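Technical annex B. To support the medicinal chemistry partners, we prepared a structural model of the target in complex with S-adenosylmethionine, based solely on the information shown next.
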Amino acid sequence: MSTPQARRLAMDILRRTMDHHQDLQAAVDDVLAGVAPGPDKGLATELAYGYLRLRGRIDFILAQLLKNPHQTSPVLKRILGVAAYELLYLSRIPEYATLDWAVSLVRERLGEPLSKVANGVLRNLVRLGRSVHLPDYYEGKTAGQAKFLSAWCSCPLWLAELWLKAYGKDKARAYLEASLQAPPLGVRVNRMHPQGERLRQDLAPLAETRTDWGFALKQWPDFLDEAVAAGAATRQSLAAQKIMDILGAEHWPSPVLDACCGRGGKTFLMTELGKTVWASDVNVFRLRQLKGESRRLGMSVPAFRAGAQGPYPLRPGPRTVFLDAPCSGLGVLSRRPDIKWKRTPADCAGLAFLQDEMLRAAAELLPSGGCLAYVTCTLNPEENEGRIEGFVRTHPGLGLLRQAQSDPAEGLGEFFYGAVLKKG
Ligand SMILES: C[S@@+](CC[C@H](N)C(=O)[O-])C[C@H]1O[C@@H](n2cnc3c(N)ncnc32)[C@H](O)[C@@H]1O
C-alpha cells in the first residue's frame, strides 16, 4: 500500500504550516511539487486540510484518552491527531492500516514505550464509536457555550467567545459549523469572452448554487481547466463574487482604484463589469501574479506598487476607491483552516489600525460624490461594521450607503463583509 508516503507528506505539510508559519496552501504546493501524480497527493492534502479543520475537536477527544494531555509531546499529539482524523472521518481506510502507520511512526520518532501509548489511545478512540460524532459528547464534558463551541466546532476559545458576543448563540454556531466543511469550488465566467455564454449554459446543470455569472460546484469538471486557460473563466469563490454583487459594484463610478488588488481576483471581476480599473498593492509578488492574470484574461489593467495608507501620486484621482482590505481572514476558515490556529486577538487589533489608515487615505483621495467600497473576508465587528460605523462617525463628510455580510444559510461556507460609503 502506498499510503504511508501520504502520511509522511501530510506531516511535512503540517510541520511547515504550524511550526514554520507557512500558509497552508503554499506548504501543500511546496511539499507536493516533486511528488509523482497519484493518490498520495490527494490523501496528503485531505489529511492536512481535514486535520486542521477538526484539530480542536480531535484534541478534545484525545485529551479524554491520554493520561497527561497537557504534558504529551507535540509530535505524539500530531501523529495521534492525524490518525484520529483518518479513523473518525475517512471511511475508506481500514482501521488496521491507520493503526499500523501511526504506531510505526511513533516508534520511529519517539521510541517503543510511546508507540504502546499510541496503540492504546487509538484503540480506545475506535471504541468510542458514533458518540464523538454527536454534539452531546462535548456538551456533557464542557461548562458553558463558549467551551462547548470551542470543542464541538474545533476553534480556539477566544474565537468562540468573540462570535458568541458578536452574533449570538445560533448564528455563532452556524458560522462555526459551516467553517468545518470544505467549501464548494467557485468559478466566475468571463461575460466578455466569446465562449462565456456557452460556458454559462454548460455549468448551469452542475451548480449547487449560482448567480448570473458565478457558480458554486461540488466537482470541478475537466472542461473548466481549458476554459480557465483560455481566459473564459476564473477560479473565485461564489461568496466573494456575491459580496461584490450585493454592494452594487456594477454601479460604482469609474475609474476605480483597486488599492489592495492582490493577484487581481476582484480587479478583473470589475473589469468584466465594464469598469475602468487601476490596480495597486504593496506586495510585488502579488502584482506579478496580477500581470499573469492580465495576460491569461487578455485584459490590460494599469498596475503599480503602493501602500494603501497613501499618499497616492494620482492626479486626477479615481472616482471609486475599492479596499479589499488585509484582514484577519476569520470568514474563510473553511478554505484556510490553519488561520484559526495562528491568529491571535492582538493580530486583529493591529489590522484594525491599518484598515483605519487605509480608509482615511481613500477618503482623502476621493472627489466629492466619489465612492469608497470596503470588503473583508473576516467575521470580526472590530474590522467590519464597528470599523466602518466608527469611521463614518469621525468623518462626517462620508455617508454610509450600504452594509452587508454573508449569511451561513447561503451554504457557501465562506463569509465576507462589505460596505459602501459616499463622499458628500
Ligand atoms: C484580501 S487580499 C486582496 C485580494 C484581492 N483583492 C483579490 O480579490 O484577489 C489583501 C491584499 O492587501 C495587500 N496589502 C496588505 N497591506 C497592504 C498595504 N499596506 N497597502 C496595500 N495593500 C496591502 C496584500 O498584499 C493583499 O494582496
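Notes passed to the chemistry partners:
Residues 182 and 334 are 6 Å apart (CA to CA).
The pocket of S-adenosylmethionine is lined by residues 260-266, 281-283, 286, 307-309, 324, 326 (CB under 6 Å).
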